[in-house]
Structure formats: C-alpha cells, structure tokens
C-alpha cells in the first residue's frame, strides 16, 4: 500500500480537492498542516517552494492540479475516454475562471468600498456567465440528476465519425491561449481552419460564443471551450500526453509551473491597463527578480532530470509540455531565458522540429 501525505496550510484552499478525492476513494493519508509561522522554515525544502504538495512513498509531487489529475487517473476518476476527460478539463477550467477574479477582489484590492463594488459586478456578470453553461453541461448527463460525467454519458463534446475529423481553432488575431493547440495540430500534421476574430468585431460576436470568451475549438462541428481542455484533447488524441500516469502527471506539473509564470507575467503585460510605462517596468523587474527564478530554476531541473536535459521534458519525444513551454517562453524576456542553458537549448530544439519550423515560418506575426 503506498503511503500518502498531503502538505498544506491549515485551510481548505488548493489542497481540499486532493483531500476530498483521497477521502472519496478511501485512501488514508497524513494531513500535514503548517501554520504561517512554521512555513518559512519549510519553504526551501518544498518542491517549487510552494504548497500544497503530495508525498507518495516519500516522493514529493507539486502543483495541485497535477496532483489531482494523478489521483484521478490512479483511481479511475478521470473519464472513460478522451471526450469524458476533455469534459472534466472544461469543468475544472470553468471553476478556475470562476474563482480567479475573487483573489483579485479580496487579496489585491485593499479599499473595502471598492471591494464591495467589484464583488457586486462579479456576482451580476461573472457568476451567471459561468454557472449557466455549467448547469447546461450537468443537465446534458441524465437530465442533471447525477454527476457531470456518468456511466450513461453520451459525449456532448465530440462524437467520432469514421472520416477524417475537421478541426477549427477560433481566437483573436494573436498567439495567446490558442497557440499551444495550433502548434500541437501543426506538429502532428493535422490541418485546421485558423479563424481569427478582430477585437472590433468581438462585442457583436461575444454573446454567441461558448462561455463568452475565446479561444474555442470545433471538432467535426462539436465545440470545446477552455484552452487547456483544447490542447489536452488534441494531445491525448495524438499521443502527446505521456505514455503512463507518471509521464502524464509530469506533463501536468510542467504545465502548471508554466502557468505560474504566464499568469502573473500576462497580468503585467496585458491586463493591468492602469499601469503607466514606469510602473510596468518596475513590476516586470520585480517579477523577474522575485517570481520567475524559482519557477525557471524548477523547470531547468525538471528538464535536466529527464535524460540529462538533452531531450524533452518527458520521455524521449516532444510532448504537450514542450509545446506549452515554447509558447510561454515566447513572452519571457530573452535575456532571462538565457540564464537557463538547458531551457534555452530546448527552445531551439522545439523550433527546429521540422513540422514546427514549417508552421512558425508561415504563421501570422502578431505582438502577443
Ligand atoms: N480559461 C480560459 C480563459 C480565456 C480568456 O480569458 N479569454 C479572453 C482572451 S485571452 C477573452 O475571451 N476575452 C474577451 C472577453 O472576455 O470579452 C481559457 O483558457 O481559454
């Protein structure tokens, strides 16, 4: 019997889905909870210097989403086929879109009156935008009287036909959230229609788009929203998501670590519109000094741990992890990436893979 230990603070937070999953499957675990006073003395020894992590027989696994995926696959709770797994990924991504703005409202905004105002907008606009489609997805399975995914689940996402599937990727005219999916399709030689909406057209299109946001993908006319669910679907479909649970989990760890870089960087570069050029520069300096190094060093180590870092993140061929890495590093400053020799060399290896090189040579040049 493997021994499990969940390490986190004394709260629900990012550890609770992991604890609930272990409780649900009846797997005993040690529930380690650090106080905020204790944390500094444990931080350096924690993988990626953050919590939560799971220890399985003494081996530490970081990134809550990767841990949850690992357990779900281990206990058969991650869908019975690619369509079900994709639906699960869509639901998890919706829950993230639903909860992410709350951090900004309650942790970043210090003025209580402003908090109240932002929360009212959140309840009036964000909550229905995501809960409406979730209710619909639940009802699609046994009228909504069971769970999101069930034994009689008929895929609402994609139905396979015997002919070549027809792919369409819909986004704005930028790389952004759609680029990992476009690059994976290019890598496997699967043609796709590359639909790019202008921001000028967006207000009149928005109401008819799934979850009122871009990107989304169409496969044989069936819709897959949420970028991570999109590239997950493609990666599983074409065998680029790891050869076993260990490899798939390692890919998830890499993806989540890259998200820990991409999200705060994207916020500074694109979303915090109130920042002037000087403030932006200061924030970027702080990001590159304080936030990026632990994740970049963590990635360099993950790469080095596989074949000495001379190949790819997982196994012996390019996977979804390397493609996502390439896309995120396109927004990281070149001089910062140069500090990590193995990662820099991987960037080059991915760019030089023949199908990727052909795709990069012909894709539209856009600022983001
Ligand atoms: N979690 C979603 C986030 C998608 C998202 O934030 N999309 C933005 C563009 S990058 C959008 O559609 N913004 C336009 C709007 O909300 O009106 C994903 O990964 O696909």
Automatic annotation (TrEMBL):
GO molecular function annotations of the record: glutathione transferase activity
InterPro entries, per the entry: Glutathione-S-Trfase_C-like, Glutathione-S-Trfase_C_sf, Glutathione_S-Trfase, Glutathione_S-Trfase_N, GST_C, GST_superfamily, Thioredoxin-like_sf
Enzyme Commission code: 2.5.1.18
An individual GO BP term: glutathione metabolic process
Domain GST C-terminal: 244-368
Catalytic activity: RX + glutathione = an S-substituted glutathione + a halide anion + H(+)
Domain GST N-terminal, chain residue ranges per copy: 2-79, 165-242
Keywords, in A-Z order: Transferase
Pfam families: GST_C_3, GST_N
Classification via CDD domains: GST_C_Sigma_like, GST_N_Sigma_like
PANTHER family given in the database record: GLUTATHIONE S-TRANSFERASE, HEMATOPOIETIC PROSTAGLANDIN D SYNTHASE
Protein name: glutathione transferase
């Amino acid at each position: 019997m493997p021994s499990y230990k969940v390490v986190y603070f004394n709260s629900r937070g990012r550890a609770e889905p992991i604890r609930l999953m272990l409780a649900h499957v009846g797997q005993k675990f040690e529930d380690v909870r650090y106080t905020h006073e204790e944390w500094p003395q444990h931080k350096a020894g924690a993988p990626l210097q953050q919590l939560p992590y799971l220890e399985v027989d003494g081996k530490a696994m970081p990134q809550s989403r990767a841990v949850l995926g690992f357990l779900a696959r281990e206990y058969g709770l991650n869908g019975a086929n690619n369509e079900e797994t994709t639906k699960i990924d869509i639901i998890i991504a919706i829950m993230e879109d639903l909860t992410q703005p709350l951090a900004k409202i309650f942790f970043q905004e210090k003025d209580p009156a402003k908090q109240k105002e932002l929360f009212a907008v959140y309840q009036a606009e964000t909550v229905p935008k995501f809960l409406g489609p979730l209710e619909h997805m639940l009802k699609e399975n046994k009228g909504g009287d069971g769970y999101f995914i069930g034994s009689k689940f008929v895929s609402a996402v994609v139905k396979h036909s015997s002919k070549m599937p027809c792919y369409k990727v819909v986004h704005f005219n930028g790389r952004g959230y759609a680029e990992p999916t476009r690059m994976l399709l290019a890598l496997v030689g699967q043609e796709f229609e590359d639909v790019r909406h202008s921001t000028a057209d967006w207000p009149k299109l928005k109401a008819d788009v799934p979850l009122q946001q871009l990107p989304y993908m169409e496969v044989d006319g069936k819709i897959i929203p949420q970028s991570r669910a999109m590239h997950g679907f493609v990666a599983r479909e074409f065998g680029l998501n790891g050869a076993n649970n260990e490899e798939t989990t390692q890919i998830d760890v890499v993806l989540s670590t890259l998200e820990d870089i991409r999200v705060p960087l994207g916020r500074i570069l694109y979303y915090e519109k109130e920042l002037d050029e000087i403030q932006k520069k200061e924030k970027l300096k702080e990001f590159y000094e304080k936030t990026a190094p632990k994740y970049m060093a963590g990635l360099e180590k993950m790469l080095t741990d596989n074949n000495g870092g001379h190949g790819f993140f997982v196994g012996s061929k390019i996977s979804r992890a390397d493609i996502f890495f390439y896309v995120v590093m396109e927004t990281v400053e070149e001089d910062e990436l140069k500090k990590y020799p193995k990662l820099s060399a991987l960037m080059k290896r991915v760019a030089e893979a023949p199908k990727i090189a052909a795709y990069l040579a012909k894709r539209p040049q856009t600022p983001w």
